[in-house]
Amino acid sequence: MGDPKIPVDKGQSSRFLKYSGMAMQMLGTILVFTYGGYKLDEWQQNKVPVWTLVLSLTSIGASLYLLIRSFTKQ
After folding, report:
1. pLDDT tens digits, 21-68
2. Nearest 5°: phi and psi at 50?
């Protein structure tokens, strides 16, 4: 007659929070570095966005390195 209770895995919700936090950190790092590169290019009046490319690719590489390093620690 009553609804069966579905067991909730508390570890699953903490893993979700951990990985979504990692994703937000990666996104924030990439956005900050890309914006910094954009502003450097604007300040130096570069016709080719050298700093934007360098800093955005560096931030992507660093974010992936930190992500892989955190997975291997587990």
Report:
1. 889 999 999 999 999 999 999 999 999 999 999 999 999 999 999 899
2. -65, -50
Closest CA to 26 of 64, 71, 70, 52: 64
Please give the DSSP secondary-structure letter assigned to residue 9: -
Alpha helices in the chain (DSSP H): 10-44, 50-73
Other beta carbons within 10 Å of 26: 17
Structure tokens at 11: 């570890």
Longest dimension (CA), the chain: 72
Q: So what's the pLDDT on residue 15? A: 82
Q: At a CB cut-off of 8 Å and minimum separation 6, what does 66 contact?
A: 26
pTM: 0.76
